[in-house]
């Protein structure tokens, strides 16, 4: 049986018209100029998307790229200007924790109200109530008005309600990063359980790490258009690319305005080579990796340093160091130089990595960050997965006999 | 276990049809879908009503008594100012009961319309974050208003018992009919104004003024006989009687103001009150329907306008 589609988005566009005046007086006064006073922009442009059941889809993009709008359109909160969205199954939207909590009501009353808002019937809430309170960990305060709650207690209770709703489709907007660390771990475990139970999750996040860890499909949006749809690792690369595109655009804009961004140091080129590479450039295990950073000092500067970091495809830093830690003193006079760093007998696991380079004064101010400056790929080793490789040996031996028959 | 669960879920969802998201804006076919939506969230609506009532009187020691203080204060003012000082009470027997009937009925209308008008803007936090059939917010304020009305009605009945004018005859049947007219009419406007108020916040101020004016357009502190004596059934009187609120107030007076039937000789009601009420009911239902359809059409942009 093929997996059924749970969300079908077809050619969806959304235009926002921004009225700058609201009162009758202003409308009459500005009637002739009303057109000018309308600013519209397209938050979404011809988005088509089919999401099958059981997948976890991440929506990423810059601020204002339309990802939250898309989530709201899927959730039915905003109607698209053109195109249509259809959906099946039971949905719960977690766009804001505790939306609908009333400060004057007690925790208990708010649990019932909030679960009704999220679509639970009263008898279902009765059934889950103890579990919800248990999950939130605020048993002692459940009969206190929520206006007396600390903000942590507030979101914990809200999240507890939200995850006990039994949805087929869960829409999540930037709400997973709440509470202290044990609670966050609880939340992540709950999400993993949701995934195992075949629920579909669509989440908006700024955290590349979170998206990389949770999603099996990522959609990158930029200015309302879909840049990428599919593999998470690649999506994050696209996203990062679009971040640097943005930086380039910013620079071009400044240049067009006649005030180019002024750098005292430029990094025209960063190259990665290795002592053992195949024809595709894939680096063999245990080879020496050379990173060379070519840089040009344009004018005499104060003491400064270069930082080099190796990151995984989803943006986790594997290793980073600075020239100060290496004991290198960088030249302060204008000229073109090259910094060579060699990682001997590297222990990186298979996969693709990126190198990012950061330049800063010793006083701490940033001069320039190039991310990603270069990428490289490491061959798989065969045993195990991960960002680093450890030498592994194993054995199995018997410690004691089975305690009783029949227990396996 | 979770694998089997996942498969169950998949099969259950696969059996459902893909449904378009959002309300249908079609004028006729959308009505049914809207009704189903609202019916489906009746439990939530009742919770919202309770939330409003609980939150309103939380932390006040008199609590629900406050919902009586306002109409009782109004009653006292009108009883003395208009009844005694201006002398209206002389031609209206049991003036206190008469005024209280009018005031409670009118209060129900005001509360539904005013509460409804601001219901969407007051719940903007919810509307921007979660999709619910938005009609439930004005409907929740109807529920709250009905609760307050119920409390006042109990007081009214107690008062008639104390006064020895227990309304126990066929005229009492006017009460449910009048209330239905009033509720449909007020809800229709409540829903419509709730939607419009999102786009034009002036509506809520306009409503306040309109309510102040309309108060005098219904026989609440004066009886219908004053109007009838002056106008003698001409077209102005017909216009006066075309107002569903006026009809509802008259119906309620007919039901609960026993002295108006037994002691008064003047004409306190138009002859064909029942027929007028039935017509008004029909019109009110149409108004409610049109109001809901307009609301449904404009509600798609609520989240971004709030």
From TrEMBL, chain A:
Keywords: ATP-binding, Nucleotide-binding, Transport. GO terms for molecular function: ABC-type transporter activity; ATP binding; ATP hydrolysis activity. Residues 7-248 form the ABC transporter domain. It holds the Pfam family ABC_tran. SMART domains: AAA. GO terms for cellular component: membrane. The keyword Acetylation does not apply. The keyword Transport applies. PANTHER family: TEICHOIC ACIDS EXPORT ATP-BINDING PROTEIN TAGH. Belongs to the ABC transporter superfamily. This is ABC transporter ATP-binding protein.
Automatic annotation (TrEMBL), chain B:
Pfam families: ABC2_membrane. PROSITE patterns: ABC_TM2. It is a multi-pass membrane protein. It comes from the Bacteria. The keyword Translocase does not apply. One of its GO terms (cellular component) is plasma membrane. GO terms for molecular function: ABC-type transporter activity. The chain crosses the membrane at residues 60-82, 94-115, 136-166, 172-194, 206-227, 273-291. It is found in: Cell inner membrane; Cell membrane. GO terms for biological process: lipopolysaccharide transport. Residues 62-298 form the ABC transmembrane type-2 domain. InterPro entries: ABC2_TM (IPR013525), ABC2_TM_bact-type (IPR047817). Keywords: Cell inner membrane, Cell membrane, Membrane, Transmembrane, Transmembrane helix, Transport. The keyword Cell membrane applies. Belongs to the ABC-2 integral membrane protein family. This is Transport permease protein.
């Amino acid at each position: 049986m093929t997996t059924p589609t749970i969300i079908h988005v077809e050619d969806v566009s959304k235009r926002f018209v921004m009225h700058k005046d609201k009162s009758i007086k202003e409308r009459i006064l500005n009637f002739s100029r009303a057109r000018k006073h309308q600013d519209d922009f397209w938050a979404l442009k011809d988005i088509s998307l089919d999401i099958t059941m059981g997948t976890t889809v991440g929506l990423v993009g810059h601020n204002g790229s339309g990802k939250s709008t898309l989530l709201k359109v899927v959730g039915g909160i905003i109607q698209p200007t053109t195109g249509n969205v259809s959906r099946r199954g039971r949905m719960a939207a977690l766009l804001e924790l505790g939306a609908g909590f009333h400060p004057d009501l007690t925790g208990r009353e708010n649990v019932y109200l909030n679960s009704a808002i999220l679509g639970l019937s009263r008898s279902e809430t009765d059934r889950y109530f103890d579990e919800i309170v248990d999950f939130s960990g605020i048993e002692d305060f459940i009969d206190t008005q929520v206006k007396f709650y600390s903000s942590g207690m507030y979101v914990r209770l809200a999240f507890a309600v939200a995850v006990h709703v039994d949805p087929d489709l869960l829409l999540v907007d930037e709400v997973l990063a709440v509470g202290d660390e044990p609670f966050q771990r609880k939340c992540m475990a709950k999400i993993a359980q949701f995934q195992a139970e075949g629920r579909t999750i669509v989440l908006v996040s700024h955290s590349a790490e979170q998206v990389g860890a949770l999603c099996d499909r990522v959609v990158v949006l930029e200015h309302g258009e879909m840049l990428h749809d599919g593999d998470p690792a690649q999506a994050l690369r696209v996203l990062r690319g679009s971040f640097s595109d943005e930086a380039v655009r910013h620079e071009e804009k400044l240049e067009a305005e006649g005030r180019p961004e002024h750098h005292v140091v430029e990094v025209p080129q960063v190259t990665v080579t290795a002592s053992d590479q195949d024809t595709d450039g894939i680096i063999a295990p245990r080879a020496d990796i050379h990173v060379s950073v070519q840089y040009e000092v344009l004018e005499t500067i104060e003491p400064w340093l270069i930082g080099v970091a190796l990151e995984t495809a989803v943006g986790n830093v594997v290793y980073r160091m600075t020239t100060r830690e290496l004991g290198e003193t960088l030249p302060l006079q204008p000229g073109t130089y090259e910094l060579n760093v060699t990682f001997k007998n590297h222990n990186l696991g298979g996969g693709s990595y990126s190198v990012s380079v950061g330049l800063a004064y010793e006083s701490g101010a940033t001069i320039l960050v190039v991310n990603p400056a270069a990428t490289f790929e490491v061959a798989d080793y065969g045993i195990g997965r991960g960002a680093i490789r450890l030498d592994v040996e194993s054995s199995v031996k018997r410690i004691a006999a089975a305690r009783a028959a029949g227990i396996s | 276990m979770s694998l089997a669960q996942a498969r169950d879920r998949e099969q259950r969802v696969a059996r459902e049809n893909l449904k378009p998201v959002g309300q249908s804006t079609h004028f006729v076919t959308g009505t049914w879908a809207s009704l189903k939506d609202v019916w489906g969230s009746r439990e939530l609506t009742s919770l919202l009503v309770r939330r409003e009532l609980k939150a309103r009187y939380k932390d006040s020691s008199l609590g629900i008594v406050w919902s009586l203080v306002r109409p009782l204060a109004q009653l006292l003012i009108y009883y003395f100012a208009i009844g005694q000082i201006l002398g209206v009470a002389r031609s209206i027997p049991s003036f206190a009961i008469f005024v209280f009937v009018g005031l409670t009925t009118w209060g129900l209308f005001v509360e539904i319309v005013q509460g409804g008008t601001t219901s969407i803007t007051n719940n903007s936090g919810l509307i921007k974050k979660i999709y619910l059939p938005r009609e439930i917010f004005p409907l929740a304020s109807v529920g709250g208003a009905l609760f307050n009305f119920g409390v006042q009605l109990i007081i009214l009945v107690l008062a008639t018992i104390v006064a020895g004018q227990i309304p126990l005859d066929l005229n009492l049947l006017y009460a449910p009919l009048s209330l239905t007219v009033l509720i449909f009419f007020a809800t229709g406007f409540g829903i419509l104004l709730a939607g419009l108020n999102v786009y034009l916040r002036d509506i809520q101020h306009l409503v306040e003024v309109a309510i102040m004016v309309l108060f005098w357009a219904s026989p609440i502190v004066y009886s219908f006989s004053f109007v009838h004596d002056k106008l003698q059934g001409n077209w102005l009187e017909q216009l006066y009687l075309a107002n569903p609120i006026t009809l509802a107030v008259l119906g309620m007076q007919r039901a609960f103001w026993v002295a108006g039937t037994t002691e008064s000789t003047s004409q306190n009601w138009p002859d064909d009150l029942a027929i007028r009420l039935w017509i008004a009911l029909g019109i009110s239902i149409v108004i409610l329907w049109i109001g809901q359809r307009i609301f449904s059409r404009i509600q798609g942009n609520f989240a971004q306008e709030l």
